[in-house]
Every structure is written in C-alpha cells, then in structure tokens.
Amino acid sequence: MKTNEIVNRAITYIMKHIDENITIGDVAEHCHFSKYYFSRIFKNETGESIYGFIKRLKLEQSAFHLKVERERTITDIGFDYGYCPSNYSQVFKKHHNESPIEFRNNIFQHSVNHPFYPYAEVNIESFEECNRKISIETIKDQFVIYERRIGNYNELIEKWAEFTDKYKKYIDEKTVFLERTFDDPSITSADKCIYDICMTVDKNCDVENTCVIPGGKFAVYHYKGFPEQIYTAYQNMFQVWFPVVKKRIDNRYGFDIYNKIDCDSMYMELDICIPIK
Asked: One GO molecular-function annotation for this sequence (predicted)?
C-alpha cells in the first residue's frame, strides 16, 4: 500500500518523536487538521488508529532495543518509551504474548522463521563471520525522491520496477538507489512493515515527494547474495554483532544502498547501513 503525503507527514512525525509522550492532538496539529478529521484520514489510509499506531510502534521499537542492547536493563528501555516497570511488562505481554524477560530469552526463536520467504533457511553466522563483513563508515546526507509503502517486503521487486519507471527521467550515472526501513520484521508483522523506496536526485529537482536521509556514522554490512537472505543478514547484525560490540543504535533509521543487481538472476550487492552513536 502506498501512503498519501498527509499520512506520510504524520508517520514521519510519530517516528521522530516516538520516545516522547506524543498524543493524537500533537500529530493532528503537526499536520494542520482537527484531531477528529485527521483520525479518520489516518485510519482509512493505514487501517490503524493513530493511538494504536503510536502504541504499537513504542512496543515494537522497545522490543527491538531489548534485542540489540542486551547490556541495558528492561526497566531502562521501558522508561525510554514512557513506561514504568509494572505497566511496561503488562502492555508488552499483551502485544507480544510474552513478558519482556521472556522475549529477551527467546530472541533467537523469534527469528528462525523467515517472514517473507517461508522456504528460505535462516542461517545465523558466528560473530567472526559477521564481523568480517561489517565496517564503520561515515555516510553523507542523501537528498532523495521517495515513496513510502506499508506492507510485505516480498513485493519490493514489483514496487521498485514501478518506481524506477515513474521517475526514469531523473536517473543518471550518479543516481544511488536506496531503501529505507523502519521495522524489524522478526518483531513487526509483515503486512505492517514500513519502508521507503528512494533514489538520489539533485536538490533542484521539481518533484514534491523529496526528503533528506540524514547521514552520519553507520555500521555497514556488505551483503552479496539474493533477496531471500537479506533478512538473515539483518538478523546477523541484530542478534550476533550488535550485542557483542555493544554499539548503540541511535534514533535515525537504517537503509540499504544498492551497489549492483542482476535483474535476471536477482544476484545483488548492497550495503546494509545501521546508524550508530
């Protein structure tokens, strides 16, 4: 599902302020609508209420940090998203069907089944294997045309074809193709994953749906393979690499940079870029 610009603005605002006590009124005011009217727009477009969307994001992003920041206490992570210890455990269990402690103890079990390609094996690497593929890099800001989608990542090939055809007049030899991701699909349902399809353009581009993807310091996993195993590469970073090196992911969002793709075999080389402090 492609989202409209008003809902895009709301989602971007929510994700930027997800660790704050934001309300429906805050989101509606940011988008210059009454909260009652905007609530209807948001629900019609996404299938979720604004309140439900905010609550789900808090619980899923906090679960992600339980996964990658295992040296931090559950209480501290809950506080980051506005929950006191008893309340956090209660609402977490209601959403994830297990307590935060159980979730953290069962992290590997949550990731063994591929959410997009059920037949694909998820082979977790050793730390040494994973570490050889990762470098720490500084990446500059990226000015891009983007379209936001909500739904299953296995639709990406079709969506990319539509996107590149639509904006083909802006493509040249300097164009960089990126995919910005906002969810860990081992935590978020496949049909609720949010992602942006993007390509770099000149800042004088006359297209309205442009934005800047913030640069900075990133852990970069250099992936070579096929689409089915990109999920596994992400899980190697989240389950194996980050817990050992104890680097903290910051409040920017990650993205993939496509360096090479064979459209016949679908072999690809890409950089998985995860922002770090």
From this structure: sequence-specific DNA binding
